[in-house]
Specification:
By secondary structure, the chain is α/β, with parallel strands linked by helices. The chain has one domain (8-187, 213-239): NAD(P)-binding Rossmann-like Domain (Rossmann fold), CATH 3.40.50.720. The chain has helices at residues 17-28, 42-48, 64-78, 101-129, 150-170, 188-195, 201-206, 216-227, and strands at residues 8-12, 32-37, 54-58, 83-86, 132-137, 175-180, 238-239. Strands 3-2-1-4-5-6-7 form a 7-stranded parallel beta sheet, with helices on both faces. Helix 3 (64-78) packs parallel to helix 4 (101-129). The longest helix has 29 residues, at 101-129. The protein is globular and about 50 Å long. The termini are far apart.
Length: 250
Amino acid sequence: MDVLSGRVAVVTGGARGIGFAIAKAFLRAGAVVVIADLEASKEAVAELSEHGTVEARALDVRDWTRVHEIFSDVQQDYGRIDIDVNSAGIQAPGPSLEMSEERWKVVLDTNLGGVFVCSQAAAVHMTRQGSGSIVNISSVAGVRGLPRRAPYGASKAGISALTRVLGSEWAVHGVRVNAIAPGWVETDLVRGAVARGELDEEAILARIPLRRLGRPDEVADVAVFLASDMSSYVTGQTFYPDGGYLACGE
């Protein structure tokens, strides 16, 4: 499907995991994709380039000045910005009683502050052109109490709240803002945590009605829907591709 043909997308955190899957799905749907990640990954671009026009630019989403520069550069280079996916994020799991100020701030500044400033930087240009779709990556951790993940859960809950505010505020300008809050997805991060014994995969699967982890491409499909005109009457919403995790009371 070429539902994103002719559109320009910025995907933060697009060099790996869910962000990478979204970048690939956008390319397949016809978009030009700019990956904005901590490192401008040549490997990611090399793998994705067979699917369409893609480039990578180095970005730390905590650097507000650099964020605005990146989006301005993309606007200047391509003449427009149609889609912004805010997928950059980190975790700092640990006991809440031992949480340091530094660890708390770096997670909130990256996961929540980064989503806000990237949305702001994208919307500066989208509001001028009268259209655009912003997709924020949240998590079921924003609505379920996952032990040892206080800053992560707080930041993801904040993303959903922020999505409602921005979706309401920018609708008048033709800019839609939505969020995706995945459940347990089979990324390298999750697989590594299982291998190290930090996550009990059997216990996780027992709480998912579909009895399996999600795939990054399944989350990416939701992102394509939200980025395209298929969701033209949808804004301020959070979608939960979680295999039934939140719906199940067990």
